[in-house]
Amino acid sequence: MIRVAAVGDIHMGPESQGVLRPSFETLPECADTLLLAGDLTRHGTPEEARVVAREIKDLSVPVVAVLGNHDHHGDRPDEVTEILRDAGAHVLEGQGTVVTSGDARIGVAGTKGFGGGFVGRCAGEFGEPVMKEFVRHSRQCADALCTSLRALGEQDCDVRIALTHFSPCRTRWRVNPWRSIRSSAATCSPRRSTRREPISPCTGTPTPARNTE
Amino acid sequence: MSDHGAEPAPGAPAAEHLDYRVAHLGERLAAGPLGELGVRVELRGEAVLLTGTVPSAQCRDDVLRLAREALAGSPVHCDIAVAETSAPDHAEELT
């Protein structure tokens, strides 16, 4: 059995330094890896990223992260990424990585994701430049996640996990359509295999067959 | 947790276009220094209800202060939760 600890939307800032560390330090007893599903900071500043970095530094389980929209707000996602990597996290955007726990190989493909909708309820790459750019970015995030998941399929992983910030699940859209319609992920990801299906940790459900918060 | 504060102050301006003021507050919470997208601001009759989850007690206090400033003259009810930071008490089995 693979044990996954996953959390997102922690929105850390200087006032929250240290609040998650006590829980994170219990992870070796109960988890093989820690996944951070984006919105790790409030405004995406290096100062806030350093708060997150101190929370995860030197944990004895591998940490894999994606950024969220809040982590982009300061227009410095590369610096945020670098600070988290310096603290030991695998920070993914359209990439995959394999972490190990004992003999288990855990493949994680990650992207922030974006808006766009789902099959039958999605925007098209058509019309005004800003509309085309919006949809294109959604599609690029989804395509990169799809490619990364397929590549992990060749790396003898015991489990493959799709880690995203924007929700990959239609259920979220049904619960709160007006909020979710602005932030639903684009469609993607390979069809589930029977054994090694991608799992969405931020929702705790298997990733829908053609979907990629 | 519920805070029923901010009754209309004597002499405060009337709640004209309250629905617009509520919408502008939501935009200010999201795009302003708080960067808070996790709070819903809803009209309930003549009052305004704040719901959602924020990362810290300080953030909740900041949101409530901003709401009372922006909606002076209208009652503001705060039902904002602060995010739990302890470890979950059970695992979820995925198949």
Can you describe this structure?
The complex is a heterodimer of chains A (213) and B (95). With 213 residues, chain A is α/β, with parallel strands linked by helices. Helix content of chain A is 31%, strand content 21%. Chain A has eight helices and eleven strands. Chain A has helices spanning 21-24, 27-30, 46-56, 69-72, 77-86, 129-152, 170-175, 177-180; strands at 4-7, 33-37, 63-66, 90-91, 95-101, 104-111, 117-118, 121-122, 159-164, 199-200, 205-206. Chain A has a four-stranded parallel beta sheet with strand order 1-2-3-4. A three-stranded mixed beta sheet of chain A has the order 5-6-9, with helices on one face. In chain A, a hairpin with a 4-residue loop joins strand 10 (199-200) and strand 11 (205-206). Chain B has 95 residues and is of the alpha+beta class. Chain B has a four-stranded mixed beta sheet with strand order 1-4-3-2. In chain B, a hairpin with a 2-residue loop joins strand 2 (39-44) and strand 3. In chain B, helix 1 (18-31) runs antiparallel to helix 2. The longest helix of chain B is centred in the N-terminal third of the chain and has 14 residues, at 18-31. The radius of gyration of chain B is 16 Å and the shape is elongated. Chain A binds chain B through residues 3, 9-13, 15-16, 19-20, 22-23, 26, 30, 42-43, 70, 73, 199, 204-206, and chain B through 34-35, 37-38, 54-56, 58-59, 83, 85-87, 91-92, 94-95.
Q: Notable features of this structure?
A:
heterodimer; A: 213 residues; alpha/beta; four-stranded parallel sheet; three-stranded mixed sheet; globular; disordered C terminus; B: 95 residues; alpha+beta; four-stranded mixed sheet; 2 helices; 4 strands; 29% helix; 25% strand
- What level of helicity do the residues of chain A show? 25-40%
Query: What sequence of helices (H) and strands (E) makes up the elements of chain B?
Result: EHEEHE
Main β sheet profile of chain A: 4 strands, parallel
What's the arrangement of strands in the largest beta sheet of chain A?
A: 1-2-3-4
Broad structural category of chain A: alpha/beta
Largest sheet geometry of chain B: 4 strands, mixed
Secondary-structure element order of chain A, N to C: EHHEHEHHEEEEEHEHHEE
What would you call the shape of chain A?
globular
- Helical element count of chain A? 8
The dominant shape of chain B is elongated
Largest interface chains and counts: A-B, 22 and 17 residues
Helix content of chain B: 25-40%
Assembly state: heterodimer
* Total E-strand runs of chain A: 11
Q: Count the helices of chain B. How many?
A: 2
Q: Going across the major beta sheet of chain B, what is the strand order?
A: 1-4-3-2
Q: Which regions of chain A contain 5 or more consecutive residues with pLDDT less than 50?
A: 177-213
Strand content of chain A: 15-25%
> What is the distance, rounded to the nearest whole angstrom, between the alpha carbons of the first and last residues of chain B?
36 Å
Percentage of residues in DSSP E strands of chain B:
25-35%
